[in-house]
Amino acid sequence: MAAPREPGGEAAFAQRIDPAREPGLSPEQRLLMAQVERAQRQRALQRRLRGRNVLLALGIGAVALGIYGYTFYSVSQERFLDELEQEAEAARARARARAEGAAS
After folding, report:
1. Burial code of 46-55, b = ≥16 C-beta within 10 A, e = fewer?
2. Residue 5 backbone phi and psi in degrees, to 5
3. In Å, how far from its chain's centre is CA 18?
4. pLDDT, tens digit, for every residue of 35-84?
5. Which whole-number Å values give the CA distances from 44 to 17, 34, 35, 39, in the listed order?
6. Would 3 disulfide with which of 11, 51, 53, 54, CB 3.0-4.6 Å?
7. Distance between CA atoms of 62 and 54, rounded to whole angstroms?
8. Which residues contact residue 12 at a Cβ distance below 8 angstroms, ignoring those fewer than 6 apart?
9. 3-class DSSP assignment, residue 23
10. Is the pTM higher than 0.85?
11. Cα separation, 65 vs 57, whole angstroms
12. What distances in angstroms separate CA 53 from CA 39, 46, 61, 101, one per listed residue?
């Protein structure tokens, strides 16, 4: 079923009106329309902010995971340095043993 049309060609429900210039509206109706418009703007703003907040949370989460991963990578590198230190200590012990053997 088609929507009723006015002489201008637009459907009645699609027309925009200016509440300040509409003669058939009471002050209470104008106030209610203003409140509804404010509520709709607030909802639209909340939707936009929700999207931004999600992007921000994903960005912060990615940075935190990156730092966490880098920390694990650095700790695994420290084990490599421990092995080098053990080899250096063994080389020092061999050097001392040679020095003691040469001194006797």
Report:
1. eeeeeeeeee
2. -110, 150
3. 39
4. 999 999 999 999 889 989 999 999 999 999 999 999 988 877 666 677 88
5. 21, 15, 14, 9
6. 11
7. 12
8. 3, 4, 5, 6
9. coil
10. no
11. 12
12. 21, 10, 12, 72
Contact 11, 19 (CB under 8 A): no
Q: Which amino acid is at 35?
A: Q
User: What is the rounded CA–CA span in Å between residue 101 and residue 96?
Assistant: 8
Start-to-end CA distance of the chain, whole Å, equals 115
- What residue has token string 């999207």? 51
In total, the chain counts a number of residues equal to: 104
Q: Do 19 and 32 touch, CB atoms closer than 8 A?
A: no
Answer for the pair 29, 37: CB distance below 8 angstroms, yes or no: no
Q: What CA–CA distance (Å, rounded) separates 63 from 84?
A: 32
Tokens of 52: 């931004």
